[in-house]
């Protein structure tokens, strides 16, 4: 019944990147007719360059340039032939040099992305399993994806979580011949490392465990012969480890290299490694430059370069320690991450640094969670201590200004990254004449104010929320325990500018995921009921639908009001520590809200379509049919009208215990068959409350001739603002298809609302196609989400790919 138009993550990424581009933080063009590595020119301005991945500066070494030039002069600009047939004359020497650097068999690839695509499907057999660190590079994850088509199980763990890794190993060891754990040696965003020694201990404990390291950011600046960070710890490559390095970053040339101890694996990949077999090989210039770099790596000069870089890294660390800048990871790598929190703060700071003469990279979604936007600063041998010191001074000066410009503060940034955050209120960042009021119960709020703002929708008018607070309190089941929070923002004249409510409770992480994902998870939940569930702080509640936010968007200060709300919600986040913060049921085409919330660190996701009906211009059912479109009239005559004689309809405001139990069982049938919107079951006390409340009534549909007369029920709420809300539905699936029970319930809801003189029907979420048939207006809805990390989103995405 629930047909959900799912959000395409690419659309969200494009939208976020568009904001970044428009802010001037990305998609820039370097200028000038020469480049020395120390400075880069953008829009006519020379900037000190702190964004390179060439940490040793070898790309500017004259020996590499001459190696490339000589190779071009000797062999041309390319050697357009697959290596499966013949390699150009320089390849054999390069392979020999790279083998000497690593002391193990190697395979050279066009780049690391193509390398992973060639190697991973070749070394992972059908009987194996894969476990991914959720921060492992995209190129590794992309190469793993096709393994799902071969029924290779793929699991994901939180970043560097060895306890979780061991649990996954235990889960897979009975059905997998080999278990491959895939991780980065050095991670490209925060500059932190994989726990190499601990992973080797796990290898000793579990003979099935093999490790696949992507160490492209650890190459050259670390290790014997510049063999990388992983080799600096391991010293010698173990049998059950495959290593990937690159020649395209610090190495100063192009291409990548796979290293393994097992020569059979090397030959297997070299003989047939997918794109490694069919792609054109490295250009002569790349091979010539790589050979020159390899010879430097095999000399003592590499250690002098490593030490020079280490000295600059140490100096940068020393300078940072004299500031309050939020350095997210303390380490000795050349990558540093300065937290900004919200995207707009990061964009603002990047532009401020460009103005003061420095270029740094912006780190943002999807590479990091949206609210973990920050500056990714890299140190290279090109950077001199004078400009390193000046960069830190510029950061210390401009960072507070960027915070002030974007109505935030250092404490909020620290909280976004889980750093030294207390449960106290953050210092006020927003300068405004508006005032925000917070409440813990609807009983504290004037009913007239509430019902004239937020409460004119669904079942969350003042009376409805008073009931929900009582129903969702102190249950034995954690999913039925909710806390409610209310917010009202007023201007200097006490006029309400914003009003909303939030609830805190346990949600299924796949609530809006494709049905196939929920099906897979529900199998596991038969044993582990709370598998892939998280506590959420959610605008509205699990049981409500509609416009949960009243916002006077026509007022110039609506953004200030929203800022005040987000600050107060952050106080709750500190106290409650939810995995997700969800702002929901917004119109998808509200671009102003979309831009505002993207800049505040939220990502947009599609929700099921909502529907309303307010076309009560007709006087009787025959007139109603005339208001429908030609196609809908045909549906009515084929799918609804023919069953009038076979069904009987009763409107009841009270139910016997037997009727209540029957109705609840029909609700459960719908719940179990409606995984497109996968929620926990509503608690039975909610249905018991309906029976005694004057605001609830029941549209009951019976078969005239059957032993099971009750086949459908609509649980309808009569909102104080004259809104009719068919909030919950129940159907007997044995008869629902034969008698089109769902469509009949929709039609009878419209007839009943007309009888009551309702001004509108809030039909709720899902089944937009069916509701459109009866004349409802279907609305595209979206939510905006912040997550403490991207783990759940990414692990659910792997289930979707299954």
TrEMBL record:
Segments forming domain BioF2-like acetyltransferase: 631-765
Gene3D superfamilies: 3.40.630.30, Aspartate Aminotransferase, domain 1, Type I PLP-dependent aspartate aminotransferase-like (Major domain)
Pfam families assigned: Acetyltransf_6 (PF13480), Aminotran_1_2 (PF00155)
InterPro entries given in the database record: Acyl_CoA_acyltransferase (IPR016181), Aminotransferase_I/II_large (IPR004839), AON_synthase_class-II (IPR050087), BioF2-like_GNAT_dom (IPR038740), PyrdxlP-dep_Trfase (IPR015424), PyrdxlP-dep_Trfase_major (IPR015421), PyrdxlP-dep_Trfase_small (IPR015422)
SUPFAM superfamilies associated with the record: Acyl-CoA N-acyltransferases (Nat), PLP-dependent transferases
Record GO terms (molecular function): transaminase activity
Co-factor requirement: pyridoxal 5'-phosphate
Keywords: Aminotransferase, Transferase
Domain Aminotransferase class I/classII large intervals: 50-395
Alphabetical list of PANTHER family matching this protein: CLASS II AMINOTRANSFERASE/8-AMINO-7-OXONONANOATE SYNTHASE, LD36009P
Name the record gives this protein: Aminotransferase class I/II-fold pyridoxal phosphate-dependent enzyme
Source organism per UniProt: Autumnicola musiva
Native organism taxonomy: Bacteria, Pseudomonadati, Bacteroidota, Flavobacteriia, Flavobacteriales
């Amino acid at each position: 019944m629930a047909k959900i138009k799912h959000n395409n993550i690419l659309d969200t990424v494009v939208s976020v990147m568009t904001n970044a581009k428009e802010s001037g933080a990305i998609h820039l063009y370097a200028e000038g007719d020469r480049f020395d590595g120390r400075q880069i020119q953008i829009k006519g301005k020379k900037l000190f360059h702190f964004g390179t991945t060439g940490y040793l500066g070898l790309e500017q070494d004259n020996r590499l340039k001459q190696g490339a030039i000589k190779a071009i002069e000797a062999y041309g600009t390319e050697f357009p032939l697959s290596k499966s047939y013949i390699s150009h004359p320089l390849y054999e020497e390069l392979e020999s040099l790279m083998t000497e650097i690593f002391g193990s068999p190697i395979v050279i690839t066009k780049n690391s992305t193509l390398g992973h695509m060639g190697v991973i499907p070749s070394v992972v057999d059908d009987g194996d399993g894969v476990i991914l660190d959720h921060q492992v590079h995209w190129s590794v994850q992309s190469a793993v994806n096709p393994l799902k088509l071969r029924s290779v199980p793929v699991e994901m763990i939180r970043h560097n979580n060895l306890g979780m890794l061991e649990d996954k190993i235990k889960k897979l060891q009975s059905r997998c011949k080999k278990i491959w754990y895939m991780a980065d040696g050095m991670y490209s965003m925060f500059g932190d490392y994989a726990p190499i020694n601990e992973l080797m201990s796990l290898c000793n404990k579990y003979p099935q465990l093999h490790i696949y390291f992507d160490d492209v950011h650890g190459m050259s600046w670390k290790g014997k012969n510049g063999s990388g960070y992983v080799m600096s710890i391991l010293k010698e490559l173990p049998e059950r480890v495959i290593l990937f390095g690159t020649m395209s970053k610090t190495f100063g040339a192009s291409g990548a290299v796979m290293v393994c101890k097992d020569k059979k694996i090397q030959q297997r990949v070299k003989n047939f490694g997918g794109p490694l077999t069919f792609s054109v090989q490295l250009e002569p210039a790349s091979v010539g430059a790589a050979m020159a770099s390899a010879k430097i790596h095999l000399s003592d000069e590499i250690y002098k370069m490593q030490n020079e870089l280490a000295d600059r890294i140490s100096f940068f660390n020393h300078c940072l320690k004299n500031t309050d800048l939020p350095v997210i990871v303390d380490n000795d790598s050349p990558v540093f991450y300065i937290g900004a929190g919200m995207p707009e703060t990061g964009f603002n700071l990047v532009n401020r640094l460009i103005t003061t003469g420095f270029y740094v990279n912006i780190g943002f979604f999807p590479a990091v969670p949206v609210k973990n936007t920050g500056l990714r600063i890299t140190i290279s041998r090109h950077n001199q201590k004078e400009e390193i010191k000046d960069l830190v001074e510029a950061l210390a000066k401009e960072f507070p200004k960027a915070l002030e410009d974007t109505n935030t503060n250092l404490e909020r940034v620290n909280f976004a990254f889980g750093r030294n955050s207390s449960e106290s209120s953050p210092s006020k960042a927003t300068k405004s004449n508006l005032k925000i009021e917070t409440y813990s119960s609807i009983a504290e709020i004037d009913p007239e104010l509430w019902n004239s703002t937020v409460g004119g929708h669904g079942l969350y008018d003042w009376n409805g929320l008073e009931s929900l607070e009582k129903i969702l309190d102190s249950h034995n089941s954690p999913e039925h325990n909710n806390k409610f929070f209310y917010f009202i923002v007023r201007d200097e004249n006490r006029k309400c500018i914003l009003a909303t409510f939030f609830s805190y409770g346990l949600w299924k992480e796949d609530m809006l995921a494709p049905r196939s994902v929920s099906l897979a998870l529900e199998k596991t939940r038969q044993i582990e009921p709370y598998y892939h569930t998280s506590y959420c702080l959610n605008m509205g509640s699990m049981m409500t639908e509609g416009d949960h936010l009243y916002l006077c968007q026509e007022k110039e200060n609506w953004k200030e009001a929203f800022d005040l709300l987000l600050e107060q919600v952050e106080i709750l986040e500190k106290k409650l520590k939810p995995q997700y913060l969800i702002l929901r049921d917004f119109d998808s085409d509200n671009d102003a809200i979309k831009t505002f919330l993207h800049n505040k660190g939220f990502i947009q996701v599609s929700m099921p379509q909502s529907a309303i009906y307010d076309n009560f211009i007709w006087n009787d059912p025959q007139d109603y049919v005339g208001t429908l479109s030609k196609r809908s009239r045909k549906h009515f005559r084929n799918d609804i009208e023919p069953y009038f004689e076979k069904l009987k309809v009763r409107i009841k405001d009270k139910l016997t215990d037997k009727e209540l139990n029957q109705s609840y069982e029909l609700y459960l049938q719908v719940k179990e068959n409606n995984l497109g919107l996968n929620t926990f079951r509503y608690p039975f006390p909610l249905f018991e409350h309906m029976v005694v409340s004057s605001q609830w009534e029941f549209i009951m549909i019976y078969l005239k001739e059957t032993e099971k007369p009750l086949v459908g029920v609509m649980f309808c709420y009569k909102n104080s603002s004259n809104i009719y809300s068919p909030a919950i539905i129940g159907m007997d699936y044995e008869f629902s298809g034969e008698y089109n029970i769902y469509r009949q319930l929709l039609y009878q809801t419209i007839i009943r609302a007309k009888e009551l003189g309702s001004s509108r029907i809030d039909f709720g979420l899902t089944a937009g196609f069916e509701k459109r048939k009866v004349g409802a207006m279907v609305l595209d809805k979206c939510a905006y989400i912040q997550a403490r990390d991207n783990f759940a989103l990414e692990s659910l995405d792997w289930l979707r790919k299954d």
